[in-house]
Amino acid sequence: MADLEVGAEINEVETLVRRDFLKILTVSAGAVALGATVWPFINALNPTADDLAIANPIIEVGAIAPNSAVRVMWNGQPIYIRKLTPQQIADNLAVVASSLPDPADFTSRVKPGYESFVVVVGLNTGIPCELLGNSPTDARGPVDGWTCPCDGSIYDPLGRVRSGPAPNNLAIPRFSFLNATQIQLG
Questions:
Q1: Torsion-angle region of 91 (φ positive above 0: left; ψ -120 to 50: alpha; else: beta)
Q2: N or C: which end of the chain has fewer CB within 10 A?
Q3: Phi, psi dihedrals of residue 163, rounded to the nearest 5°
């Protein structure tokens, strides 16, 4: 009789173990099925490759001639990319940053290793007016930078405010050099 009771207890334990295993198996299969069903909806929220290309454009800068710039529209703002001449670099390295209305030294305005390129948002910081000075024939003011046709503010080739009512230097957008001839914004 004792053997029957022990055998019944073993069968009951085996049944419970089997049930627990089946419960775990069923819940796991349900979780996988739910994930497989929901994932396409979640993945649809990711940006497409076209959206990423627009959000982080790559700009070719190898063809920019010294002492000239290109204008690119990005996020609704004009971005100016200027290639400096060796003379402009030397002149701007000699400027005492503390003498400027918004102090900034040369190294804070350019990327290390790419000192001949300046990348700035081309909007006056006083009033949002697009600046002149990208072409060598544009009015650039006394420091060979950019001028604002709206309020007369003057910026140097690094985008530092030199005079006028503008309170701050030109903003520097997020960007990185992919190589010596390509910049990626964003």
A1: alpha
A2: N
A3: -160, 170
* Alpha carbon of residue 14 to chain centroid: 60
- Domain range annotation of the chain: 1-46, 53-185
Residue type, 75: N
The 3-state DSSP class for residue 93 equals helix
What are 95's two structure tokens?
């400027």
Q: What is the pLDDT of residue 18?
A: 78
Nearest residue to 160 via CA among 117, 106, 115: 106
Q: Is 167 exposed, middle or buried (0-12, 13-18, 19+ CB in 10 A)?
A: exposed
Look up the pTM and report it. 0.75
Instruction: Give residue for tokens 């990423």.
Output: 52
Q: What is the pLDDT of residues 28-85, one digit of tens each?
A: 898 889 888 988 888 888 878 777 777 889 999 999 999 999 999 999 999 999 999 9
Q: What does the alpha-carbon distance between residue 138 and residue 157 come to, in Å, rounded to a whole number? A: 13
Q: Which CATH architecture fits 53-185?
A: 3-layer Sandwich (2.102)
Quick one: pLDDT band at residue 1, thresholds 50, 70, 90? low
For the cut 70, the answer to whether the pLDDT of residue 3 exceeds it is no
